[in-house]
Amino acid sequence: MTQSMQLMQTIWKAIEEKKGHEPVALDLQGLSTIADYFVICHGNSDIQVQSIATEVKQQAEKAGARIRGMEGYDTGRWVLMDFGDVIVHIFHREDRQFYNIERLWSDARTVETV
């Protein structure tokens, strides 16, 4: 198992811990040099979005990952977290429906088992 896959699984578990809705992991390997994985989920409130982001950051850092950047935390509408090989998008429900990142990366394989 690659280091990026292990990080993706750690992030997935953190999302589940905070009851993130409809998590999806997209495998971008071979499709993009941006990252190996996108992990996408949503919360039903600004506070839940922030809570998920906080848990993801804590668990990823505990696993030895370093966050390179985080945007959108203060508003809690769309938090983008860059861990290098894994990019995390945590949306407010309405914003996830509007931006529909999954459609933009429809060529990516969905990771079924995490």
Could you give a quick summary of the protein structure above?
With 114 residues, this protein is α+β, with helices and mostly antiparallel strands.
Describe the SSE topology.
Blueprint: H1 3-17, E1 21-27, E2 37-43, H2 46-62, E3 69-71, E4 78-82, E5 86-92, H3 93-99, H4 101-104, E6 109-110
Parallel strand pairs: 2-5
Antiparallel strand pairs: 1-2, 1-6, 3-4, 4-5
Helix pairs in contact: 1-2
Q: In words, what does this structure look like?
A:
- The chain is of the alpha+beta class and 114 residues long.
- The chain has a single domain, classed as Beta Polymerase, domain 2, CATH 3.30.460.10.
- The protein is built from four helices and six strands.
- It has helices at 3-17, 46-62, 93-99, 101-104, and strands at residues 21-27, 37-43, 69-71, 78-82, 86-92, 109-110.
- A six-stranded mixed beta sheet has the order 3-4-5-2-1-6.
- The longest helix is centred in the middle third of the chain and has 17 residues, at 46-62.
- 33% of the residues are buried.
The outline comes out as globular
Which architecture would the CATH scheme give at its second level?
Answer: 2-Layer Sandwich
Distance between termini? 12 Å
* Estimated share of beta-strand residues: 25-35%
Strands side by side in the biggest sheet: 3-4-5-2-1-6
Count of strand segments: 6
- The SS-based structural class is alpha+beta
Largest pleated sheet: 6 strands, mixed
Number of helices: 4
**Uncertain stretches:** none
Helical content class: 25-40%
Write down the overall mean pLDDT: 93
CATH class: Alpha Beta
Query: What would you call the quaternary organization?
Result: single chain
Q: In the CATH hierarchy, what is the superfamily?
A: Beta Polymerase, domain 2
N-to-C order of helices and strands? HEEHEEEHHE
Q: What is the number of independent domains?
A: 1
Q: What Rg do the Cα atoms give? A: 13 Å
CATH topology term: Beta Polymerase, domain 2
